[in-house]
Amino acid sequence: MIGKLNHVAIAVADLPAAVAQYRDLMGADVSEPLDLPEHGVTTVFVRLPNTTIELLHPLGENSPIAKFLQRNPGGGMHHVCYEVEDIHAAMKRMQSEGVRVLSAEPKIGAHGKPVIFLHPKEMNGVLVELEQA
Ligand SMILES: CC[C@@H](C(=O)O)C(=O)SCCNC(=O)CCNC(=O)[C@H](O)C(C)(C)COP(=O)(O)OP(=O)(O)OC[C@H]1O[C@@H](n2cnc3c(N)ncnc32)[C@H](O)[C@@H]1OP(=O)(O)O
Ligand SMILES: [Co+2]
């Protein structure tokens, strides 16, 4: 059911420092920061030849990555995102197999496409995002 790896997300405590590291030290093509208030994050895309790295920093008071950074003050790998053809079909299938979907409906993600998140407890300890291709 899943297709390409769309992105790997890394939560960072210091976004400008992480941007400088990927752009200047690693030589990557790095986007401008994008505020996504509906997701509670500011994100920067690091464009690699075969996928994207999403640098995430908390935005606002109820950011879903705030607790993660409290537990991991130095940052860490936050989630992986796979592409699916039909987000509603994927959502139903996951729920029917007892995997918790973390929103009642898909939300529009950073790439303008519908996304859902699957609870890490049912996904081998990894938070998984599914994005409609
Ligand atoms: C940029 C936009 C968009 C895109 O299009 O790409 C994004 O990627 S937005 C990214 C941010 N959004 C989200 O993460 C939404 C989904 N996340 C959530 O709903 C919550 O963060 C969560 C995963 C349900 C965790 O909620 P929280 O309130 O933080 O619960 P706990 O802290 O109590 O954690 C419970 C349990 O889960 C473990 N955990 C939490 N986060 C992760 C993680 N990222 N990876 C692996 N495990 C995680 C946490 O350690 C707790 O475990 P126990 O202590 O063993 O119970
Ligand atoms: Co993401």
Q: What order do the helices and strands come in, and which of them pair?
A:
Elements: E1 5-11, H1 15-25, E2 29-30, E3 34-36, E4 41-47, E5 52-58, H2 66-71, E6 76-84, H3 87-96, E7 107-108, E8 114-118, E9 127-132
Parallel strand pairs: 1-5, 6-9
Antiparallel strand pairs: 1-6, 2-4, 3-4, 4-5, 7-8, 8-9
This protein binds ligand LP2KCY5N and cobalt (II) ion.
Ligand LP2KCY5N is lined by residues 9, 36, 39, 41, 43, 54, 56, 64-65, 67-68, 78-79, 81, 102, 109-110, 115, 117, 119-120, 125-127, 129.
Family: Belongs to the methylmalonyl-CoA epimerase family.
Keywords: Cobalt, Isomerase, Metal-binding
Enzyme class: isomerase
Series of H and E elements: EHEEEEHEHEEE
Bound molecules: ligand LP2KCY5N, cobalt (II) ion
Alpha-carbon distance between the two ends: 12 Å
Mean pLDDT: 97
CATH class, please?
Answer: Alpha Beta
CATH H-tier superfamily: 2,3-Dihydroxybiphenyl 1,2-Dioxygenase, domain 1
Helix content: 10-25%
Structural class: alpha+beta
Secondary structure tally: strands = 9
**Tally of discrete structural domains:** 1
Question: What count of helical segments does DSSP give?
Answer: 3
Proportion of beta-strand residues: 35-45%
Known CATH architecture:
Roll
Give unreliable regions as ranges: none
Give the biggest beta sheet. Answer: 9 strands, mixed
Looking at CATH, which topology would you report?
2,3-Dihydroxybiphenyl 1,2-Dioxygenase, domain 1
What is the 3D shape? globular
Domain VOC: 4-133
Protein name: methylmalonyl-CoA epimerase
Pfam families: Glyoxalase_4 (PF13669)
Family: Belongs to the methylmalonyl-CoA epimerase family.
